[in-house]
Specification:
Elements lengths: L9 E4 L16 E4 L1 H8 L25 E4 L4 E4 L2 H10 L6 H24 L3 H12 L4 H10 L5 H4 L4 H7 L2 H8 L1
Antiparallel strand pairs: 1-2, 3-4
Helix pairs in contact: 3-4, 3-5, 3-7
């Protein structure tokens, strides 16, 4: 839920039991996390602002992309808000080789989307579906989500300057529909 590496093995209490024991069995307080995020990064950390409001992005109630910007070429998150800053720091989102994994995910997603397009042009629907599954099964699903969002953002031609063909694909309604189903 935090790093996106897709190795969820632990259940994290978003609002730690030590802070709020009444949320111990609250389903919305249980998040799938990798053991590194759960035991070594976030642990019982739960920063709050001066009014007592949580400073971590709650992925059950908020869109993380409202608070975080993924620089696709570097695989690094930048904060857009104080919540984004705290989330990056507490969860270590730019450490542990995560940027490198995100950069690799971007390459794999790009290859799969280009292969999807070739299969689409050849009217090979089984192959198209296979390439969509390849994208969906990649670790770092946040990379594909970010690519889809940034394709329509101001400056998208700069973000995808080294791969304008990929930008055109990400803007195709049929591809977006297939990915977001």
């Amino acid at each position: 839920m935090y790093c996106g590496e897709s190795r969820g093995t632990d259940i994290d209490h978003f609002d730690p039991i030590a802070r709020n024991p009444l949320r111990a069995f609250d389903w919305l307080n249980h998040l799938l996390a990798c053991s590194t995020c759960n035991s070594h990064q976030k642990r019982d950390q739960f920063p709050v602002d001066e009014h007592g409001n949580p400073l971590l992005v709650d992925p059950t109630a908020e869109d993380p992309f409202d608070h975080l910007l993924l620089t696709l070429s570097l695989g690094i998150y930048s904060p857009l808000t104080p919540k984004g800053k705290a989330t990056i720091e507490v969860c270590g989102l730019n450490g542990r080789g995560l940027p490198r994994g995100r950069m690799q995910a971007r390459r794999v997603v790009g290859l799969a989307l280009r292969a999807w397009n070739e299969a689409c042009e050849g009217n090979r629907s089984d192959e198209m579906l296979e390439h969509i599954h390849t994208v969906r099964e990649q670790p770092f699903a946040d990379v594909c989500q970010s690519m889809l969002r940034q394709a329509f953002s101001p400056g998208a031609d700069v973000v995808f300057g080294d791969s304008l063909d990929l930008l055109a694909l990400l803007r195709k309604p049929e591809l977006r529909e297939a990915l977001l189903r």
